[in-house]
Design brief:
- By secondary structure, the protein is α+β, with helices and mostly antiparallel strands.
- The protein has one domain (5-62): Winged helix-like DNA-binding domain superfamily/Winged helix DNA-binding domain (Arc Repressor Mutant, subunit A).
- The chain has 3 helices and 2 strands.
- It has a two-stranded antiparallel ribbon with strand order 1-2.
């Protein structure tokens, strides 16, 4: 499965901080929050990421 460089960076960031917000990731990677949301959605569809908990009180889990 091919991931973009940004998607790989997102996974690395989440491994270090599973509770990080999309806004914070967008600041770290210098892209819009919408771009992060699209990447997170794509990573979930590929089975790489999973979200546990609620929108503002959950954690990301890197599966692969």
């Amino acid at each position: 499965m091919q991931l973009t460089e940004r998607q790989k960076n997102i996974c690395d960031i989440i491994k270090e901080n599973p509770t990080i917000s999309g806004r914070r990731m967008s600041e770290m990677l210098s892209v819009s929050q919408r771009t992060i949301e699209r990447d997170l959605s794509a990573l979930q569809k590929k089975g790489v990421l999973q979200r546990k908990g609620y929108a503002h009180d959950g954690v990301w889990i890197v599966l692969k």
